[in-house]
Write a structure and sequence with these properties.
Blueprint lengths: L6 E4 L8 H11 L3 E6 L9 H6 L3 H11 L4 E5 L5 H15 L4 E4 L17 H29 L3 E6 L12 H21 L4 E8 L9 H10 L3 H15 L8 H12 L10 E4 L7
Parallel strand pairs: 1-2, 1-4, 2-3, 4-5, 5-6, 6-7
Helix pairs in contact: 1-3, 1-9, 4-5, 5-6, 7-8
Length: 282
C-alpha cells in the first residue's frame, strides 16, 4: 500500500458518482486516511439519482472509506469562504497530526455559465472563478503552509479540465477558470518545489458521472424527458467522439490522481495531464 500512513484532503468529494468520491476510495485503497469535504446542497442542486438513493454526500463516502479499513473525517465547508477553507485545513491537521496530499476537485455547478460571453451574467462569471480557481488557490495556500511547516513534503493534485486547454463556445466562465488552474499549478509547483511538495493537474474530458447541470435539466424539460435520459444521450454522443470508444469514468481520473499522489511521481511537478481517451492532444 504505497500511501500507508499518509493523510489526504479531498474537496468536492460528496457526489455519489463523482471524481472526489472515486479519488477518496482510491487513495484509501492505497493506505491513506482521508479528510473529505463538500458544501451542503439543497435538493434542487442534487442529481436525481442521489435524491432517489437518499445519498448523504460526504457522510456516505466516509462510511465507504471506513469499510476499506481507513479513517475518514467528513467536514462540510463552503469553499467560497476563505475562513472556512483555513479552518478545514486546520481541522484536518489537528485531527490526524499531518497532511500529505491535497486534491482540489470541487467545482461550481455548471449550466448557468452556458451562454455567449456577451450574455454571460457577471455574477455567474464571479462564482465560477471563486469556486473553480480562487478556492483552489486558497486550499493550496493554507494546505501548502501546513505541509511546509510539517516538513514531510507533499502532493497537490488539481482537477482542471480539457476546457483548461481548449475553450468552446458558450464556455467563457468555465474555460477561464480552468485555464487559470493550470497556470496556478505551474506557479505553485515552482514555489513549493524547495519544500519537496509537487503540484500537478489532471485534465479530464467528458466524464460519465451524474453531476448536476442546470443546462441539462432545462434541456431535458424542453424535450419532455428526464434529466437522466438527456444525460445518457450526451454520454453516448461523447463516446462516439472518443478514439477509445467511451468517455472517462470517475475511476479513470482517480487512477491518475493516485499515481500523482504516490511515490512513483516524486520527480513530476508542474504538469497537466489529459484523461480524455484521445479527443484532445495538448
Amino acid at each position: 500500500m504505497s500511501l500507508q500512513g499518509k493523510v489526504a484532503l479531498i474537496t468536492g468529494a460528496g457526489g455519489m458518482r463523482g471524481v472526489g468520491r472515486a479519488a477518496a476510495l482510491k487513495l484509501a485503497s492505497q493506505g491513506a486516511d482521508v479528510a473529505i469535504t463538500d458544501v451542503r446542497r439543497p435538493l434542487d442542486d442534487l442529481p436525481p439519482g442521489e435524491v432517489r438513493a437518499e445519498w448523504q454526500s460526504i457522510d456516505s463516502v466516509s462510511e465507504e472509506v471506513r469499510a476499506l479499513g481507513r479513517a475518514a473525517l467528513p467536514i462540510y465547508a463552503d469553499l467560497a469562504e476563505s475562513r472556512q477553507i483555513e479552518e478545514l485545513v486546520a481541522q484536518t491537521v489537528n485531527h490526524y497530526g499531518r497532511l500529505d496530499i491535497l486534491v482540489n476537485n470541487a467545482r461550481a455547478v455548471i449550466g448557468r455559465d452556458k451562454a455567449p460571453v456577451t450574455e454571460l451574467e457577471e455574477a455567474v462569471w464571479q462564482h465560477f472563478l471563486n469556486i473553480n480557481t480562487t478556492a483552489v488557490f486558497r486550499c493550496t495556500k493554507f494546505a501548502g503552509r501546513e505541509m511546509v511547516r510539517l516538513g514531510n513534503g507533499g502532493r497537490v493534485v488539481n482537477i482542471a479540465s480539457n476546457a483548461g486547454k481548449q475553450a468552446s463556445a458558450d464556455g467563457a466562465a468555465y474555460s477561464a477558470s480552468k485555464f487559470a488552474v493550470i497556470g496556478l499549478t505551474q506557479a505553485s509547483a515552482l514555489d513549493l518545489a524547495p519544500h519537496g511538495i509537487t503540484v500537478n493537474a489532471v485534465c479530464p474530458g467528458p466524464i460519465n458521472t451524474d453531476r448536476m447541470s442546470y443546462w441539462e435539466r432545462d434541456q431535458a424539460a424542453q424535450r419532455g424527458m428526464t434529466q437522466e435520459e438527456f444525460r445518457a444521450q450526451i454520454v453516448s454522443t461523447s463516446a462516439e467522439r472518443s478514439p477509445l470508444g467511451r468517455i472517462a469514468e470517475a475511476e479513470d481520473v482517480a487512477n491518475l490522481v493516485s499515481f500523482l499522489a504516490g511515490p512513483d511521481a516524486e520527480f513530476i511537478t508542474g504538469q497537466s495531464y489529459n484523461v480524455n481517451g484521445g479527443i484532445l492532444f495538448h
